[in-house]
Design brief:
about 400 residues; 4-stranded mixed sheet; 15 helices; about 15% strand; globular; binds pyridoxal-5'-phosphate
Amino acid sequence: MTIFSKFDALAKDREELLSVGFDPFGTPIEEVYSPTEALIDNRRVLLAGTNNYLGLTFSSECLEAAHKAIDEQGTGTTGSRMANGSFAGHRALEQELADFYRSRSAIVFSTGYQANLAVISGLTQQGDVIVIDADCHASIYDGCKLSGADVVRFRHNDAADLDKRLKRLGDKAGNALIMVEGMYSMLGDKAPLKEIVDVKNAYGSYLVVDEAHSLGVLGDTGQGLVEECDVLADSDFIVGTFSKSLGSIGGYCVSNHPELDFLRYTSRPYVFTASPSPSVIASTRAALPLLRDGKHLREKLWANATKLYNSLDALGYQLGPEVSTVVAVMLDTREQALAFWRGLLEHGIYVNLVFPPATPGNKSLVRCSVSAAHSEEQITSICKAFENLRDIAS
Ligand SMILES: Cc1ncc(COP(=O)(O)O)c(C=O)c1O
């Protein structure tokens, strides 16, 4: 046994993966033409797996702001938020995020992954308890590990099970940190947030809602599921990412708890990493009002999502439980999913391929994410490709 022995099984799996011609988990996008079109494997493809929900990556406002920031402030901050990496733009974006959520304050992190790590490991430590929806994202699980707190899982989207787990904690329930997502990243289903808030209020626990996939997608002004369910005031901490609807990279946490600011001194994923570059901050600041005022984009996004979900449902595919901007086709085996993914690429459609353990129920997924930038014709093309490939799923 060596330190490399653990890779033996993976090496075998990878050989099988590479049999499709190239690595589906390392597909280079050779050229990008727009939020919905690119060159992959020397072929012009339609992008249907990008999390670019509002299609803002080529918005003229964002491009202009990013160019100006590069010209005026350079390519990077070369330092941590705690040292030389907090520019005026970082602070301004924090204020804008706090205003957007009508919250006391916000912190900007280098990625959404790090936002979860920072918030969870900053708020909890050994002796504390985190109660987590079983289907939470890897960044939430990793944050739990980093914290050293005890972790209790409750059944996915089951508020009654959350209640049961908190009851078992006895006196500790009032200090527990509950972790949920607004919209779940793999199947696109939404949390029963009102019920979860009722349970948390009954025990006096604290709630973190990760709106990574719901920011810009749900709610009148795009705040996410907290807005759609009208539970903003009851959500202690909202975490999110700039890497989806806002079209850049970075993460944030907003809260009314003044203690949030202490994370700036204690949270390792905030302190020990470089801050987002000025152009990233500038384009995110330009995107935020577009997201807030983008009701028309949300309408288009949901019209596209409804059409794709209903068409694939009518074709008999096994999908997530509700119409969503994430439309994932569940397949029983990796081989089927791999063949499907390659088949879609041959039809000029790029989607995400996801294997267990990153998936609920140990299914393999061919995961589409819809964009407001998709035209009706593009959604029709995606549906047609799925229609042609139906045999692979049966
Ligand atoms: C629920 C959830 N949280 C956090 C993240 C991490 O975000 P980022 O890409 O900004 O690191 C993701 C990314 O996919 C996610 O799905």
